[in-house]
Design brief:
Distance between the termini: 21 Å
Strand order of the largest sheet: 6-5-4-1-8
Mean pLDDT: 94
Low-confidence stretches: none
Number of strands: 24
Radius of gyration: 21 Å
Number of domains: 2
Number of helices: 9
Helix content: 25-40%
Largest sheet: 5 strands, mixed
Strand content: 25-35%
Structural class: alpha+beta
Length: 445
């Protein structure tokens, strides 16, 4: 088996708007660099691997464009690549979101650098050993949807909110670790972690806690392996413990704190990892069509009522989901506008995504999921997988919005609200579980 890895800086110029919230924020500088990272594995004629971006989300069109460019450059293994975002909320727009489009120059640069990263990793192929492990210890992840007194569910209701009854769901606390060793030294580490990547909350560029985790791992090891964070199903999971009085607000120090916490667990696992014997690598690709929700006349009437009642915002403050939980008028108006935009431009349409499954022998598999599925989706895929260890990777191969469980739509919470470009149909979670499970069974052979 051979492996190759690379890392290329994709930090934007000053002033380029940052994605992640409901309104764009022109960046005022750089806290830390953004990167595209690539790890490729080769066994015989089979080549597969991972490409991760320090961005909020990507489009399927971006992936397709990169694959066309790679093929023209002589790379013939695009079907074996999983492209995913770390979901940093302090990175530029790469796909159109809430009426804001990517900067064409930055998007072209990102494509160029992604191609460079993959081709460089291919040029770096050398004999390698894979080692695998994991631990069920994720103390900084919490289900962010809560049942409230009086009924219904609210997302991010606020710390110590007296109306909280209990979390709506659970959390996948497993942290998976895969190390790539060459010449007795770890050159790359992949970590599958379930948590949102939104801790900085500033107008400055940052890779958030995955970037800080990489730095902390490197500091602990004394050299600089490439560290790829593969975000698990965290659509309803974030860092806020509503029971705690400890500060959990948005700050760069919080990104460092979470990054250090996860780095400690990754480094501790390095001593426990077991060699991954791989007699064959199996690649499975399956196309899935995800329809948008149908936006009814009743939903539009309710949205129009909000617009009639709530005046347009005139201040420049950021719009966040926390504002919706507190009943902030500007955020309620934003979602009302999005409902009407979704009805006009998305309702009844469909999108196509590729689900990519990489299987290493009969013990370990990684499978991609578009958008932000709820944590229960990942847990269901793991339970049904024929492999001992399975990593669902979200925000991969394209964006389709939040993917709640079907039962969640009637309960409330902003993840269930329709937005332009998001709003997958109510049965999407079940369909992703079925299609991913079928991929894994097929990969097992």
């Amino acid at each position: 088996m051979d492996a190759g890895c690379s890392k290329v800086i994709i930090t934007p110029r000053r002033g380029l708007p940052l994605a992640g919230y409901f309104n764009p924020r022109p960046n005022t500088g750089v806290l830390d660099d953004l990167h595209v990272r690539c790890v490729l594995i080769r066994q015989g004629k089979v080549v597969c691997g991972w490409v991760t971006f320090d961005i909020c989300m990507m489009s399927a069109d971006l992936v397709d464009t990169v694959l066309v460019r790679l093929k023209k450059a002589g790379f013939r293994h695009g079907n074996g690549l999983i492209f995913s975002a770390t979901h940093a909320h302090t990175a530029p727009y790469v796909t159109s979101l809430f009426g804001t489009s990517p900067d064409p120059g930055y998007l072209q640069s990102l494509i160029d650098k992604t191609v460079e990263a993959v081709l460089t990793a291919e040029q770096n192929f050398a004999p390698a050993v894979l080692k695998l492990g994991g631990v069920k210890d994720n103390p900084l992840a919490f289900n962010r949807r809560y049942w409230m007194k009086g009924g219904g569910v609210t997302t991010n209701p606020g710390v110590k909110n007296p109306d909280i009854v209990k979390p709506e769901g659970t959390v996948d606390r497993e942290i998976g670790v895969l190390a790539v060793e060459q010449d007795g030294r770890v050159v790359a580490i992949l970590a599958n972690i379930v948590n949102h990547t939104d801790t900085v909350g500033t107008n400055q560029v940052s890779a958030d806690w995955p970037g800080r985790m990489e730095r902390c791992v490197q500091m602990a090891l004394g050299y600089d392996p490439v560290v790829l964070t593969l975000i698990g199903c965290a659509g309803n999971v974030n860092q806020f413990d509503v029971r705690s009085d400890d500060y959990q607000g948005y700050a760069y120090a919080r990104a460092w704190q979470i990054g250090q916490c996860y780095a400690e667990r990754v480094v501790a696992q390095m001593k426990q990892l077991k060699p991954l014997a791989v007699d064959r690598i199996t690649l499975v690709n399956k196309a899935i069509t995800i329809p948008f929700r149908t936006i009814t006349k009743e939903m539009c009437a309710a949205a129009q009522a909000v617009l009639d009642r709530v005046a347009a915002q005139t201040s420049g403050s950021d719009l966040t989901s926390e504002g919706l939980a507190t009943g902030e008028g500007a955020v309620a108006r934003f979602f009302a506008e999005q409902t009407l935009a979704c009805r006009a431009r998305c309702s009844g349409r469909r999108r196509r995504f590729r689900l990519v499954t990489l299987a290493f022998g009969d013990r370990f598999a990684v499978t991609s999921l578009p958008g932000e599925p709820f944590t229960e989706v990942g847990l269901a895929i793991k339970r049904r997988s024929p492999f001992k260890t399975t990593w669902p990777v979200s925000l991969a191969m394209g964006a389709c919005g939040y993917v709640p469980l079907a039962a969640c739509f009637a309960r409330g919470g902003y993840e269930t609200l329709p937005v332009e470009g998001g709003a997958p149909r109510e049965d999407t979670a079940d369909r992703l579980i079925e299609a991913s499970s079928a991929n894994l069974v097929r990969a097992k052979g």
